[in-house]
User: Fold this.
Amino acid sequence: MHCYVINGADSPYVLTLTDQFGTHQHVQLGRARLLCTPTSVDPSGAPQATVEHGPVLNGNFDPFSADHLKCYDAPPFPAGPRAVVTLEDPFGFETIALRPGFDRLAVVCAPAIKTVEP
Assistant:
């Protein structure tokens, strides 16, 4: 999955968030800042990436057992996508115009498995 920096509208929501690390109350949502899009998949449906440089990928990793995302910084493309998109999430709908040169690739995310160390 890759994520683009976007400039969404201010959110009116204040949340209580609970995850395996605890509960965080009174979390004021700000603007939407990232739009993450799925990357290509191979015939089995697993996310696909082509390694141009670097070590061989972990062939034993099962992306379908992943329960988290791990995101890496990515250099911006010279020109981002040009499109008008409507995004729907639990907080509603928002239409955003993606503008080349302004909305840039920010991070690339991969499925990850998290294990809490004792």
